[in-house]
Amino acid sequence: MSDLSTTTKSVPQSAREPGEPKARMMNDKKKDLIQKFAALASLLLLVAVFAMTSDAFLTVNNGMTIALQVTSIAYLGIGATCVIITGGIDLSVGSVLALAGVVAALAVKAGVPVPLGMGLGVLVGAFCGLLNGLCVTRLKLPPFIATLGMMLVARGIALQITGARAVSGLGESFGELGNGALFRIVTIGDDGFPNVVFPGIPYPVILMVVAAIGVAVMLSRTTLGRHIYAVGSNAEAARLSGVNVARVTLITYILSGSLAGLTGCVLMSRLVTAQPNEGVMYELDAIASAVIGGTSLIGGVGTISGTAIGAFVIGILRNGLNMNGVSAFTQQIIIGLVILLTVWIDQMRNRR
User: Fold this and answer.
1) Which of 90, 160, 191, 256 to pair with 145, CA 20 to 30 A apart?
2) How far apart are CA 345 and CA 330, in angstroms?
3) Contact, 74 vs 103, CB < 8 A?
């Protein structure tokens, strides 16, 4: 195996040959920063606009609501970012989260302790990601086709094992992960009813922060992270440099599937009911959050911090439109236009 330090330093952010001038490398990094700050500016603009149009937008309760809504997009977006950086795509996460959630619920209803049931759900997601990765790396299927097939298979299994019915009667402990909060302060009023002084930090938000920091450190500080960027920048050059391209690609799909499984468990826990039809079109939100945050669809470029910003852009946009009485159909149109605009900007950046 040849020295990887030169390769990983020369291709961490975009497709470039090892001998490419440093000036162009700095220029590409500058473009990546511009894209990220553009997304951050859009986020701040949305906050300012919705704060002026709704008095309740900047309240603590609404802030926690937005954070909870964003968690699902962020979990899936983090996984999607890693897959897209390698030059792939994962369209199955919405169906995988539904399958993982109903498996966890069925296990708990059968008497399995809640933590083990949730863990089983995450493992189901990881197994689906493993199958996706094997289809791409061993069977040489295009990622679009491989994950599209898994999307149909996972949804079909979720509907089959539940009889297309919701799984209920799971008990309060099943809802602790999705509805619990750290540092929640509740007092009992004179009327004997509880008053929430501070809603606390929801557990899903804590998990989101931990996952984002963990994967961001992995991408920026580890050999695996540098190999992920190298594979997306130039898979053949990475292979010639000693990188196990198939293994790196496989790991990203397993990570995406695992995060989809976690998303399913958190969503079902919030509802305290497992819905086999949950997660429809969530894969588009995941991909959109990554692209809005600066991840390039051709691979080699992307950051978790940018994806987090993209997830909040989508979450705040939906929340603000809801508070202003915009219909769900109009919201779909607006978010669809935002996705088209960001992808067009990404394509323009790549052509330059």
Assistant:
1) 160
2) 23
3) no
Per-residue pLDDT tens digits for 302-327: 999 999 999 999 999 999 999 988 88
Q: Give the pLDDT mean for 257-272.
A: 96
Query: Amino acid identity, residue 98?
Result: A
b/e string for 84-117 if b means 16 or more Cβ within 10 A? bbbbbbbbbbbbbbbbbbbbbbbbbbeeeebeeb
- Bridge-based pairing state of the strands 201-202 and 181-182: antiparallel
| pTM for this predicted structure | 0.88
CA distance 157 to 163: 10
Q: Cβ(84)–Cβ(255) under 8 Å?
A: no
Q: What residues pair up with 201 in beta bridges, in sequence order?
A: 182
Q: Tell me if residue 182 falls in helix, strand or coil.
A: strand
Phi, psi of 197 (to 5 degrees): -75, -45
- Tell how far CA 204 is from the center of its chain: 13
Per the rule left: phi > 0, alpha: psi between -120 and 50, beta: everything else, 38 is alpha
Distance CA 123, CA 127 (A): 6
Closest CA to 120 of 132, 133, 134, 106: 106
pLDDT surpasses 60 at 4? no
Within a 10 A sphere around the Cβ of 173, how many other Cβ atoms? 13
Q: Which tens digit of pLDDT belongs to each residue from 43-62?
A: 899 899 999 988 888 888 88
Give the tokens for residue 122. Answer: 């995450």
Distance spanning both ends of the chain, measured CA to CA = 34
